[in-house]
Amino acid sequence: MREMLFALLVGSCVMAPGCNKKDVAMAIAPAADEMAPRSAPEAVSAGSASVGGDMGGAMAKGDTAAAAAPTMRAPVSSVQAGEWDDNANYRDYVRWLEEADRSAQRLDITDREFVVVKDRDGKAVPNCQVTITSPTGKASLITMASGRAIVFPNDLGLHGDTLDAIAACGRSQVAGKISTKTADGVTELSLDTARTLATRRTVDLAFVLDTTGSMGEEIEAVKGTIRAVADKLSNDQTSVRIGLVEYKDRSDGNDLTHTYPFSSDLHEFSRSVAALRADGGGDTPEDMHAGLTAALDNLQWSQDAVARLVVVIADAPPHLDYQDEQDYGAAARRAAAHGIKLFTVSASGMDDTGQIVMRQMAQYTGASNMFVMRGGAGPDSVGGGDPKSSCGGSHENYASGKLDQLILGKVTRELASLDADPMSIPGRGQDENAKPCNQRLVMAN
Do residues 184 and 247 both lie within one domain? Predict the structure, then answer.
């Protein structure tokens, strides 16, 4: 099994600039510090995959390779997935994006800056509006649970060596300057007041789900994820609200999208989506843009949520030829402006164009890209191996992580980042996969 997984990863390595077999061997390794004891704020669920590993560009065609292997319809609980964070490996991502297929547009992420908003005690301040101005334009972002906002000045039309930044959090406000002369620069905006967080922290989690005919296994996995969130995350300290948008394509008639509003009664919500099933479709592209628009516009996002997450799950790229609707680039910018992370899940069979779209949306909003590895736990699984790594130890979750566990890990990491060091930024200055094992950062947030 290990040899088969290794061979598949090597075969998919062609999309990664400079990728070699050693890179692939390390791809499924955890950071060495991930195996060491960690303080409570940094702890993540056992089912979540490390972003300090090296799966990155090596898996750019991983789903294509997986689709080419013999497949077995696995039990729902055995849907396997991997994860890759293009912000933690930003330079590798920029190279890949430059060399990848040109059929889809590019968000201009050639300059990346960070704004970090902290309170008087140095703690991360989420949900803070950051307004950035330059002689050529103005943009607004919302800080994430980590207290950070990622700024891509070129894409936002903010040109100049220095940008003005103002963070407004409730009645507190602080101003600063962003220097674009320094690559991966960090602008710290420190409030003179302590942050105010509700005793019970709210997380908004939405799914944007392709429900056309080939998505049956993933739909069942989402249902299982909702049940897992209900069982494991809703407690006296955390309130999770879940919403869902299903989408198809215009050829499927009037039911292009259907929105299930946010609910904090997760068991009832689970019952309300129990009838979701896969049907329709027929051609490869689907109307993903319609699903994204419905999620951003029709769901009632909480202004008090400490974290806002969308998980986009699809096995087909969006239509790029519909001229009467906004594209994925506009959706990514709008999400960032509202502090919403767009996590993406490329199901098996996703083509190169879809990979470019999914990875760009995730990277731009500070999220990560996941990919389903068909075969479950059966003998033809491409996710069932547990290869040893050059970083020492092994990493079961990365090679064999269940999709519901990975998504569950997104929520727990967002909550953990509230109390983590907001200045600990994976991939800043150097890609995590280029660092020695004992220096890699584990958290994506």
Answer: no
Among 156, 190, 224, the domain-final residue is 190
Q: Which residue type sits at 348?
A: S
Q: What is the 3-state secondary structure (H, E, C) of 271-296?
A: HHCCCCCCCCCCCCCECHHHHHHHHH
341 and 265 housed in the same domain: yes
Does residue 89 fall inside a structural domain?
A: yes
Strand partners, 235: none
Sign of the alpha-carbon dihedral angle for 62, 65, 70, 71 = positive
Q: Token pair 């991939």 is at which residue? A: 427
pTM of the full structure: 0.79
Could you tell me the two tokens for 262? Answer: 């946010």
Tokens of 61: 């065609």
Element (H, E) at 243: strand 238-247
Instruction: Convert 72-109 to b/e letters by CB count within 10 Å (16 or more is b).
Output: eebebebbbbbbbbbbbbbbbbbebbeebeeebeebeb
Mean pLDDT of the chain: 77
* Residue 114 near residue 184 (C-beta atoms within 8 A): yes
- Boundary (domain end) residue, out of 155, 190, 225: 190
Count of domains in the chain?
2
Q: Which residues contact 73 (CB under 8 A, 6 or more apart)?
A: 217, 376
The two three-digit tokens of residue 374, written as one number: 């068909």
Look at residue 445 and tell me if it is in a domain: no
Residue 233 region, left (φ>0) first, then alpha (ψ -120 to 50), else beta? alpha
- The number of residues in the chain equals 445
pLDDT in tens, 252-297: 666 789 999 999 999 999 999 998 888 876 667 888 999 999 999 9
Structural domain includes residue 444: no
Residue 54 domain boundaries: 2-107+199-439
Report the C-alpha gap between 154 and 148 in whole angstroms: 19
φ and ψ at 220, to 5 degrees?
-65, -35
